[in-house]
């Protein structure tokens, strides 16, 4: 049915998965830095965190991808000769993709994390302090485990949006499953077949993620009473 | 590095044209998307499993796949079938604007249907009981009580969806349309000034986002003031 392009597309799917997981890892780091800035008592740091999250969330992913990919390439090729490297450098789409998606979704995650941190009752941290824990211990033993539980629903949403956004990286030349499907479609003149196959693969990816994160949410909510209506 | 204002200033007509295209795409897809979303939302709260599952499957598949794939399926994909190419719809289906609007409308209808269904489910039961006590028929109850109340309460979530759709319209530039992003890509291709081109586009989108947020805040004050916390 896929005229021998099945394996090629699966290869692309593997690349898509790698891209999604690596960008999410970067986004979590940036999201935590973002939320630390936004909740910081230092005014200009909080302002910087708000600026990051507001500006990034107000611009389409595609524009940011094009800006960072072409702009990044421009900067690198201006800086490289200064350090004595004269060849033209082509930005690797995978690395650019991870950087861009990580940067974009860091902003979305900082919003998710902020809501989660603010959702923890104040008494929790106070109780930790009353037990004689240092503020570091309070943060890692009291706040973070509870924050994770509260952040999972938002995180699930962010992850699904990120997974789907990986398709856009094919626009700057990453040979993910979207790119391979386009090639196969052009070669065989059967675009519907191949894009439908890619849609199905994305659906599998999002469905599996949904189930896994639902399970995780249940695990983290053990010991939380749910009121039955 | 110096920001080249002259190039951007000269390309301004291109950006303004792009802005109009973006707004046109947004308005059309939101209108038709909402039109489809209301019946879909009602189906999603139906007690008949077949009706409910059909709408669920639709929203699940649309929300589980990337917008770009949906757009390509419609714009490139449909041409694969001879029946489509020879049908009376072909003049429309071969137009990028129509395909983009269609794909965006389908996409937003799925997300909006879920918002409306959620809002319908959250209707205070007193409202429904009161409508029944007044002797309203099912249809009248939906028309006069449930839908007006649910659509109002869906406003804050719907504003997020509208802003997501504004960003989604940027994909139109991939199927050759010159929207704001398309204008930026044209400028970058001509002058190779990626920063100038894309930052200008970003500023346009940010302004549009802020305007939309303000408009929805005003709409919420108009239609949701009865839910606002009491002011002293």
Automatic annotation (TrEMBL), chain A:
| Cellular compartment(s) | Cell inner membrane; Cell membrane
Entry superkingdom: Bacteria
Keyword list, A-Z:
Amino-acid transport, Cell inner membrane, Cell membrane, Membrane, Transmembrane, Transmembrane helix, Transport
Q: Which Gene3D superfamilies match?
A: MetI-like
Membrane topology label? Multi-pass membrane protein
Q: Does the keyword Transmembrane apply?
A: yes
Q: Which residues form the ABC transmembrane type-1 domain?
A: 13-213
Q: Tell me the Pfam families matching this sequence.
A: BPD_transp_1
Question: Which InterPro entries did the record assign?
Answer: AA_ABC_transptr_permease_3TM (IPR010065), ABC_transp_permease_HisMQ (IPR051613), MetI-like (IPR000515), MetI-like_sf (IPR035906)
- Looking at the UniProt entry, the stretches that span the membrane are 12-39, 51-71, 91-109, 150-172, 192-213
Q: Which PANTHER family match?
A: ARGININE_ORNITHINE TRANSPORT PROTEIN AOTQ, CATIONIC AMINO ACID TRANSPORTER, MEMBRANE COMPONENT
| Family the UniProt entry places it in | Belongs to the binding-protein-dependent transport system permease family. HisMQ subfamily.
Q: What is this protein called?
A: ABC transporter permease
């Amino acid at each position: 049915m896929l005229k021998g392009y099945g394996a090629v597309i699966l290869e692309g799917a593997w690349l898509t998965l790698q891209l999604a997981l690596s960008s999410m890892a970067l986004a979590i780091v940036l999201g935590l830095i973002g939320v630390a800035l936004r909740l910081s008592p230092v005014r200009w740091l909080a302002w910087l965190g708000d600026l990051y999250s507001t500006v990034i969330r107000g611009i389409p992913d595609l524009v940011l991808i094009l800006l960072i990919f072409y702009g990044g390439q421009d900067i690198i090729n201006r800086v490289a000769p200064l350090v004595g490297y004269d060849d033209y450098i082509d930005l690797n789409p995978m690395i650019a993709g991870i950087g861009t998606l990580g940067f974009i979704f860091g902003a979305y995650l900082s919003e998710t994390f902020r809501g989660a941190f603010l959702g923890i009752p104040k008494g929790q941290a106070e109780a930790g302090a009353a037990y004689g824990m240092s503020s570091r211990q309070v943060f890692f033993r009291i706040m973070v485990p509870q924050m994770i539980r509260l952040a999972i629903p938002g995180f699930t949403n962010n992850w699904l949006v990120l997974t789907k956004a990986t398709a856009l990286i094919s626009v700057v030349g990453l040979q993910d499953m979207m790119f391979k499907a386009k090639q196969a479609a052009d070669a065989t003149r059967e675009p519907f077949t191949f894009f439908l196959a890619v849609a199905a693969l994305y659906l599998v990816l999002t469905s599996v993620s949904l189930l896994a994160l639902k399970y995780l949410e249940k695990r983290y909510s053990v010991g939380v009473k749910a009121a039955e209506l | 590095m110096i920001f080249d204002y002259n190039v951007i200033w000269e390309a301004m007509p291109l950006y303004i044209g792009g802005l109009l295209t973006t707004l046109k795409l947004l308005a059309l897809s939101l209108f038709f998307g909402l039109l489809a979303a209301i019946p879909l939302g009602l189906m999603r709260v139906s007690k008949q499993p077949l009706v409910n599952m059909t709408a669920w499957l639709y929203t699940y598949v649309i929300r589980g796949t990337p917008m770009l794939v949906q757009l390509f399926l419609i714009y490139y994909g449909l041409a694969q079938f001879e029946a489509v190419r020879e049908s009376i719809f072909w003049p429309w289906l071969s137009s990028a604007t129509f395909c983009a609007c269609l794909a965006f409308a389908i996409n937003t209808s799925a997300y909006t249907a879920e918002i409306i269904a959620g809002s319908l489910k959250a209707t205070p039961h007193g409202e429904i009981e009161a409508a029944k006590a007044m002797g309203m028929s099912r249809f009248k109850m939906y028309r006069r009580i449930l839908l007006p109340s649910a659509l109002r309460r869906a406003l804050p979530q719907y504003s997020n969806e509208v802003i997501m759709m504004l960003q989604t319209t940027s994909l139109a530039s991939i199927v050759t349309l010159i929207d704001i992003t398309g204008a930026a890509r044209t400028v970058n291709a001509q002058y190779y000034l990626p920063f100038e081109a894309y930052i200008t586009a970003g500023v346009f989108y940010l302004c549009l986002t802020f305007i939309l947020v303000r408009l929805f805040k005003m709409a919420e004050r108009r239609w949701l003031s009865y839910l606002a916390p009491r002011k002293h």
